[in-house]
Write a structure and sequence with these properties.
- The protein is α/β, with parallel strands linked by helices.
- It contains 14 helices and 14 strands.
- Helix 6 links the parallel strand 4 and strand 5.
- Helix 3 packs across helix 4 and helix 3 crosses helix 7.
Length: 379
């Protein structure tokens, strides 16, 4: 059996042809493929606006800036996520505060977040960044209600979940990133994610004000709008201090073809998840699925007592698993900030037991059966 990674990109000839076509065209960057990708992505998730960026970390950075986060401001997020979900707060000098996860879904706990907010004076926090962990959508309707009550903004870290959705209390399907509850949503196009651009990200919103701020900050804060007639085509102005967070036409061409296949890919991921669940039910704990939710399954996470031993055992058979994630408050940089008083019981227990099994659309039935067999044979 050949090596089986925990995740990988799926590139076909259509993707290659799309990239080659751009390489032979006039624009490699800042060309027509960028707006085409943005428009198609906005339609896909159901948002009014989409802004392509060079990676999701940049997207998170621009998101907190567009919402006015300043030095000393405090934001709540989950410790069970990639560091970028908290780093974006630190980039502007803000304070990252952690609430615990739900012990069964592994997403940010609404109750833990509420308790943390209510334990502090009014106005203590500025926002919340919940994460659609492993592809499972957070119930943003409930988080929006909490955020509105305390005058907080809401950023959905949807990097794991393009194609995921939940059903709200009105019976309406809410696609991840549609902007109906979150002020801003952020997606990732890293190779192990659903849509691979090499590197890349997308920020979606329904606010025109936030959209304009995002597009300005993405490109140095520079604008040329309505200036050529008075000054000539060369003229531009830098209105604010921005960044070079642009995505190229090459990557956007790849993103467009990848996006067109995402629903098929997510359906295949759910087939794989169903097979894992049938094999492990009653034997190994896995992420639960709330009623009305559709998990996009970037990951399939299990919990086991002897995590390191199972990791090594599977590796001996060339089955390469991964741990998602080391809790952010345990990382050396964040350890310097004292989180000893934070109640993160479920996060700590989850981390001691979690392991991500292979999950990607091109995983064959034979490969998955081998993974299941070896996982269940471990003692």
């Amino acid at each position: 059996m050949k090596a089986i990674p925990y995740g990988k990109q799926n590139i076909d000839q259509e993707d290659i042809d799309a990239v080659v076509k751009v390489l032979k065209a006039n624009f490699l960057t800042q060309g027509p493929k960028v707006s085409e990708f943005e428009d198609k992505f906005a339609v896909y998730v159901g948002s009014k606006y989409a802004v392509a960026v060079n990676n999701a970390t940049s997207g998170l950075h621009l998101s907190v800036l567009s919402l006015g986060l300043r030095e000393g401001d405090r934001v709540i997020t989950t410790p069970i996520t990639f560091a970028a979900s908290a780093n974006c707060i630190r980039y502007v000098g803000g304070e990252a505060w952690f609430a615990d996860i739900d012990k069964d879904t592994y997403v940010l706990s609404l109750d833990s977040t509420r308790k943390l907010i209510e334990s502090k004076p009014k106005g203590f926090f500025k926002g919340i960044i919940p994460v659609d962990f492993a592809g499972l959508p957070v119930n943003l309707e409930a988080f929006k209600e909490l955020a509105k009550k305390h005058n907080l903004w809401l950023i959905e870290d949807a990097c794991h979940a393009p194609g995921g959705h939940f059903i709200d209390t009105k019976g309406v399907k809410q696609r991840c990133g549609n902007g109906n509850y979150a002020d801003v949503s952020v997606f990732s196009f890293h190779p192990v994610k659903h849509i691979a651009c090499g590197e890349g990200g997308m920020v979606t919103t329904n606010s025109e004000k936030i959209y304009k701020k995002l597009t300005s900050l993405r490109s140095h804060g520079i604008t040329k709008n309505n200036m050529a007639e008075d000054h000539g085509g060369w003229f531009y102005e830098m209105q604010e201090l921005g960044f070079n967070y642009r995505l190229t036409d090459i990557q956007c061409a790849l993103g467009i073809t990848q996006l067109a296949k995402n629903d098929k890919g997510v359906a295949r991921r759910n087939e794989i998840a169903k097979k894992y669940k049938e094999a492990f039910k009653g034997k190994i704990k896995f992420q639960s699925l709330p009623k009305g939710s559709y998990n996009a399954h970037h990951l399939f996470v299990i919990e086991v007592e002897k995590r390191k031993e199972l990791y090594d055992y599977l590796r001996a058979f060339k089955i390469y698993t991964q741990v998602h994630y080391i809790p952010i408050h345990r990382l050396p940089y964040y350890k310097k900030i004292d989180y000893s008083t934070a109640d993160l019981t479920h996060s700590e227990k989850y981390y001691s037991r979690c392991l991500s099994l292979p999950m990607y659309p091109s995983l064959t039935n034979e490969e998955q059966e081998f993974v299941i067999e070896k996982t269940l044979s471990f003692k």
